[in-house]
């Protein structure tokens, strides 16, 4: 098990559309282990494989509170089957856009189909933070970031700040 570096905006790989997993083999199981290590280390409550540079449709998540035991969840090839008309607003963050948080409005409930690590198919109806986090992570699998749900003005401001920081880091490397 190894922690992998998390890609940071404006890394172009974050805009890639990830490929479905065809076979849950040792490579996928190792990827999932590394994703959990990277997610817990960050720390974060969710992670999409592309955030560690692997363009596969794999998501890890743990929504347990600090005082609760760990509750790791894996979603392979997750697909939104239905979204509610009702909306909910949450303040979102992203491990690929560190220290930036803003309110995002999304469907309040979603029905999601996915495979677990054994390849068994599941369907869940999610609401609250699980619904928000699933939509945020499935967006990552499609190359979409939560700043894409904000106004162009806000998005451009964030992009400019992170582009400048990346240039500065490259110059001093
Ligand atoms: O996908 C990611 O970048 C992870 C992201 C998930 C997420 C957070 C909030 C709303 C939607 C999706 C994060 O985990 S950001 C960090 C975070 O929210 C957090 C970190 C430590 C404790 C509690 C929350
Ligand atoms: Zn994110």
Can you describe what's shown?
By secondary structure, this protein is of the alpha+beta class. Helix content is 29%, strand content 25%. It contains three helices and seven strands; from the N terminus they run αβββββββαα. Strands 1-2-3-6-7 form a five-stranded antiparallel β-sheet. Strands 4-5 form a two-stranded antiparallel ribbon. The longest helix is centred in the C-terminal third of the chain and has 21 residues. The chain starts with 25 loop residues before the first helix and ends with a helix. The model has no long low-confidence stretch (mean pLDDT 98). The site of ligand K1U has 17 residues, from β1, β4 and α2. Zinc ion (ZN) binds next to α2.
Radius of gyration: 16 Å
Q: In what range is the share of β-strand residues?
A: 25-35%
Amount of helix: 25-40%
Bulk shape: globular
The distinct bound ligands, ions and cofactors come out as: ligand K1U, zinc ion
Q: What is the count of helical runs?
A: 3
* Poorly predicted spans: none
**Assembly type:** single chain
Give the neighbour order of strands across the main sheet.
Answer: 1-2-3-6-7
If you average the pLDDT, what whole number results? Answer: 98
Beta-strand segment tally: 7
Main beta-sheet annotation? 5 strands, antiparallel
Distance between the termini: 28 Å
Structural class: alpha+beta
- What pattern of helices and strands is seen along the backbone? HEEEEEEEHH
């Amino acid at each position: 098990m190894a922690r992998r570096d998390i890609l940071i905006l404006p890394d172009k790989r974050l805009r890639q559309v990830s490929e479905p997993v065809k076979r849950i083999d040792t490579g996928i199981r190792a990827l999932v282990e590394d994703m959990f290590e990277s997610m817990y280390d960050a720390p974060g409550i969710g992670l999409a494989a592309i955030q560690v540079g692997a363009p596969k449709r794999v998501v890890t998540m743990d929504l347990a509170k600090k005082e609760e035991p760990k509750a790791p969840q894996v979603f392979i090839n997750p697909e939104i089957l239905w979204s509610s008309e009702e909306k909910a607003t949450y303040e979102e963050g992203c491990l690929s856009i560190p220290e930036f948080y803003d309110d995002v409005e999304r469907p309040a409930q979603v029905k999601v189909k996915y495979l677990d690590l054994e390849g068994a198919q599941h369907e869940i109806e999610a609401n609250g933070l699980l619904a928000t986090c699933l939509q945020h992570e499935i967006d990552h699998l499609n190359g979409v970031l939560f700043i894409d749900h904000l106004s162009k003005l806000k998005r451009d401001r964030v992009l400019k700040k992170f582009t400048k920081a990346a240039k500065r880091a490259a110059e001093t490397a």
